[in-house]
Amino acid sequence: MFDLKCKRKNCLYNKDCNCTAHRIEVNKSTKCTTYEDCGYDKQEKDEIPQPPSRKNTNVGCDAKCIFNDNHTCKANGISVMTNDFSPECCTFMPK
Fold first, then answer.
1. pLDDT tens for residues 15-59?
2. For the chain, which has fewer Cβ within 10 Å, the N-terminal or C-terminal residue?
3. Mean pLDDT of all residues belonging to the chain
4. Total domains present in the chain
5. Is the dihedral of CA 73, 36, 20, 43 positive or negative?
6. Burial letters for 54-67: b for 16+ Cβ neighbours within 10 Å, e otherwise?
7. 83 is in which domain, residue-wise?
8. Percent residues over pLDDT 70 in the chain
């Protein structure tokens, strides 16, 4: 997956609103379970485009979503946002 956006300012993998994790897991309730709190809110720059040389990142998914294909997300990209203090996949579209 090429386009991985993250709005969690305290996530270890967030770099200027781009996710740098090597693998992402989304559970049945659409929560990003690979989120790791870095312990502080980062002072992020404005959202910047992702570099074209970004390597492909696998996204595992257990949500009942139209992009879930045998526990793998097949969307072109996802965005992780904050929903009631937990990191959630907001690209989720129910089946």
1. 888 888 888 999 999 999 999 999 888 776 655 566 554 567 889
2. C
3. 85
4. 1
5. positive
6. eeebebebebebeb
7. 1-43+53-95
8. 84
| CB-based contact 30:63 (threshold 8 Å) | yes
Residue 25 in any domain: the answer is yes
CA 49 – CA 57 distance, rounded (Å): 16
Give the predicted TM-score (pTM) of the model: 0.82
| Placement of tokens 């740098």 in the chain | 20
Residue 48 placed within a domain: no
